[in-house]
Amino acid sequence: MPRKNNRKITEPKLEPCVGCGAQVLKKQGPTHEFIGASPGCWELFGQLLAKEYEEYNYPPVHRLTVDTYAVQHPGSPSKKSIQSVAIHLIGLHLTLDLNYEAHHATQILGQAAETFTEYHWLEPPPSLGSLTILDVQGAANIKEHTDRVHIWAHTVWQAWQPHHEQIRAWKELVR
Ligand SMILES: [Zn+2]
After folding, report:
1. From ligand 1's centre to the CA of 81, what distance in Å?
2. Given Cys at both, which of 36, 52, 83, 147 links 75, Cβ 3.0 to 4.6 Å?
3. Ligand 1 centre and the CA of 133: distance in Å?
4. Tens digit of pLDDT for each residue in 11-66?
5. Given CA atoms 97, 101, 104, 105 in this order, what sign does their dihedral have?
6. Closest CA to 80 of 10, 135, 29, 33
7. Radius of gyration in angstroms for the set of CA atoms belonging to the chain, rounded to a whole number
C-alpha cells in the first residue's frame, strides 16, 4: 500500500498572551512599551482600534475598549505602568460604576494623570477575567461590538475587585 500522503498542513503556532492569556499567534512583532501584551495580542488590539476608527467612526465605546485592554495587560511594575493601570482602572470605575459619558470620563482621566502622581502598583489578581480580545473581535456591527466590549469590560473590572476600594479612593482625589 502506498503510504498516505501525510504532508503536514502548517498550522499557525499559538501561544498564551502574557497579559490576558488568550491564545494568540506566536510571532515576532512590535509590542507596547509598558502595556504587557504578546505581539500576537498587540496586533489584534491594533486591528480592533482600526475597526473602531475606520468602520465605527470613533464610537463612545472606544474609551472602554482602551481602558479594558490596558488593565488586562498590566505589565510589570514601573513608573509608567503604575500610572497607566491606575488611570485606566479609574476609567472603568467612571464608566461602569458611575455611568460617566466617554468624553466626561476622558476629561477626568486627563486631570487624574496630571494632578496626581502618587499611585502605587496594584498587584494584578491571578485571573484577569475569562473574556479577552478574542471574544470582542469579529463583531458584525457597531451594536454587537459595543455589547461585546461592555461584557468584556465588566468581567475585567470584576476581576480587579480586590482593588476597587483603592481605585474609588484615587478617583476621589482627582480635582
Ligand atoms: Zn492579551
Report:
1. 15
2. 36
3. 7
4. 789 999 999 999 999 999 999 999 999 999 999 999 999 999 999 999 999 999 99
5. positive
6. 33
7. 18
Kindly give the distance from the C-alpha atom of residue 6 to the centroid of ligand 1, in angstroms, as a whole number.
34
Distance 22 CA to ligand 1 centre (A): 6
The alpha carbon of 171 and the centre of ligand 1 are apart by a number of angstroms equal to 26
Distance CA 132, CA 149 (A): 10
What does the pLDDT look like over 128-158, one tens digit per residue? 999 999 999 999 999 999 999 999 999 999 9
CB 132 within 8 A of CB 72: yes
Q: Helices (H), strands (E): how many in the chain? A: 7, 2
**pLDDT averaged over every residue in the chain:** 93
Q: Indicate the angle between helix axes 164-173 and 79-92, nearest 10 degrees.
A: 90
User: What is this structure's pTM?
Assistant: 0.92
Which residue has cell 476622558?
A: 106
Distance 102 CA to ligand 1 centre (A): 23
What is the pLDDT confidence band of residue 174, given thresholds at 50, 70 and 90? confident
